[in-house]
Amino acid sequence: MLEEVNGCPHQEGIDYPKGEFCPKCPFWAGRERPIEQSADFLAASKHKINLIPAIATYKPEQWETFLVSAADRDTLEATWQQWNTSLQKLIAEFEAKNIDYVLVELDVDEINDFCRREGIPNNGQARSRLAALKVRDS
After folding, report:
1. Domain for residue 35, yes or no?
2. Which residues pair with 12 in a beta bridge?
3. Apex CA 68: angle with CA 63 and CA 71, to 5°?
4. What does the alpha-carbon distance between residue 79 and residue 97 come to, in Å, rounded to a whole number?
5. Which residues contact 30 (CB under 8 A, 6 or more apart)?
6. Which of 38, 51, 131, 138 is the most buried (most CB within 10 A)?
7. C-alpha distances in angstroms, 18 versus 7, 8, 12, 13, 30?
């Protein structure tokens, strides 16, 4: 499951010329996005692996409460609208690469209860794990 931006959100050939690095995101210059690594691994695999990423989503009305409880709040967007914009770009990337995914809505109380039970901080890794467990158990 991918929760945060996992690469430059700009599209090669649309937002900047093909074969060049995005001028707005120098950090990603020369780096593969985790999405690309996963797609390359699956394409190169001798065996068909049916992995479907679970993408955590959150209720807009819970965003402020969510941020208060998140151990990694300094890496999260300030508003739900900003976060949702990043999510929509990620979804567009998945769809452009024909990568299946499932959206999993997480409730703030559910996240906090899970983290308390597991004795782990409420961070992206914990939320990813919870989303994957919800998909598996559904």
Report:
1. no
2. 16
3. 110
4. 28
5. 21
6. 131
7. 16, 14, 5, 5, 13
Strands 102-106, 54-58: pairing is: parallel
The gap from C-alpha 66 to its chain's centroid, in whole angstroms, comes to: 16
Question: What's the whole-model pTM score?
Answer: 0.63
Q: How many domains does the chain contain in total? A: 1
Domain, as residue range, for 104? 50-137
Structure tokens at 98: 């024909």
Q: Give the C-alpha separation, 68 to 62, whole Å.
A: 10
Q: Which residues face 105 on adjacent strands? A: 57
What would the pLDDT profile of 53-95 be if each residue is shown by its tens digit?
889 999 999 999 999 999 999 999 999 999 999 999 999 998 9
CATH number of the domain that 55 lies in? 1.10.3100.10
What letter would DSSP give residue 11? Answer: P
How many other C-beta atoms can be found within 10 angstroms of the C-beta atom of residue 96?
9
